[in-house]
Every structure is written in C-alpha cells, then in structure tokens.
Design brief:
alpha+beta, 3 strands, rod-shaped, single chain
C-alpha cells in the first residue's frame, strides 16, 4: 500500500520546530533584556528615593548628616535586599551658598538579580539644612 500523504506535506514535516526555534532565539533575549531594564530602573528609583529621604532626614533640626545616611540605609534594606544598602555615604555640602546635606548611594545591580556582570549606579540626594 501506498501512503496517502503527498510529497509536499512530507517535505514540510518538522518545519514548525525550526520556525519555533528561530523565533525563540530572538524573543528570549529580547524578553530577558526588558526584564533587566525594568530591574535596573526599579533599583535606581528606589535608591534615588532613599537618598532624597535620607538627605531630608539629615537636614532636619537636631539631626546630623550621619542620621540621614542611617535612614537611607534602613530604607534600602527595607525595600530592597540588604546587599544593596552597603554603598551609602553622607556628608555636608552647600547648595547655592546655603548649608546642605548630601546622601550618595552606590548600588550594583547584577544581571536579572541573579549574579554575573553587574550594572553600577550612583544616585545622590540633597537637602538644605533647616535652621532654628
């Protein structure tokens, strides 16, 4: 007995698998890149907010700039993992001639949060010191 399949259909067998692999070679790195970008932007935004809040805390009457660094450190450790909170520094500065507090945070965001090559980011928050 002869097979009822035509020669054209037997020549196309397995082409769906090849098409799937070719599409996935493009889509998987694209999807992972979008996830990495989202992670980096999230960490940057959280670090910038923590630096700004730390500077405001350190600029309040009765507080020192080291209080601001401690506040920024606790904000980072509470929102993100504690490993991101290691690069917090603070110090006095001036903004347009007025005494101010500056809090800087340096974080390293690993690829997809798992490890491997990391992106290093530095954000800074400033606040003018309050006076009585």
């Amino acid at each position: 007995m002869r097979s009822t399949r035509s020669a054209a259909s037997s020549a196309g067998r397995g082409s769906a698998v090849v098409d799937f692999v070719l599409v996935m070679v493009v889509l998987v790195p694209l999807a992972l890149g979008v996830l990495q970008l989202g992670l980096v932007l999230y960490v940057r935004n959280v670090a910038a907010a923590a630096a700004s809040e730390g500077a405001r805390q350190g600029a309040m009457v009765g507080h020192t700039w080291s209080d601001g660094a401690g506040y920024a450190h606790s904000e980072l450790a509470g929102t993100l993992s504690g490993r991101y909170a290691d690069g917090v520094s603070a110090g006095p500065t001036t903004l347009d001639g007025a005494p101010a507090v500056q809090v800087s945070i340096t974080v390293r965001v690993p690829a997809l949060g798992l490890g491997g090559p990391a992106v290093s980011l530095t954000v800074t928050g400033h606040a003018v010191r309050e006076v009585r």
